[in-house]
Amino acid sequence: MSQHIHCSVSNCHYWAQGNKCDANEIVVITDSLANQYPDNVDAPTASSIPASPADKCEATCCKTFINSGSAEVNVDGVKRM
């Protein structure tokens, strides 16, 4: 059975038809931590990010987002499937 992360951010490099995330892995962190880490801190280095609680879904952030057409597509170490 195929599993998918659903995402409606259509200008993300990893966005695929049907609102699917086509990244081979993602990392989601709290908004309070998101700006403390540079863009190259992503799923491959997730173990270096401290665990942090969130009170609601609006307080979370997909750190894997890269703007479609960006020259920095490989900066995070995540590959498009």
Characterize the structure shown:
There is one protein chain. Helices cover about 5% and strands about 15% of the residues. The protein contains one helix and five strands; from the N terminus they run ββββαβ. The model has no long low-confidence stretch (mean pLDDT about 85). It has one helix spanning about 30-35; strands at about 5, 15, 20, 30, 60. The chain has about 80 residues and is mainly beta. It is globular. The strands form two sheets. The chain has a three-stranded antiparallel sheet with strand order 1-3-2, with no helix packed on it. A two-stranded antiparallel ribbon has the order 4-5.
Mean pLDDT: 86
**Share of residues in helices:** under 10%
**Main sheet characteristics:** 3 strands, antiparallel
Note poorly predicted spans.
none
End-to-end separation: 16 Å
Strand order of the largest sheet: 1-3-2
Oligomer: single chain
- β-strand number: 5
Please trace the helix and strand order, writing H or E for each element. Answer: EEEEHE
Gross morphology: globular
Briefly note the structural class of the backbone: mainly beta
> Over all CA atoms, what is the radius of gyration?
13 Å
Number of helices: 1
Taken as a percent bin, the fraction of beta residues is 5-15%
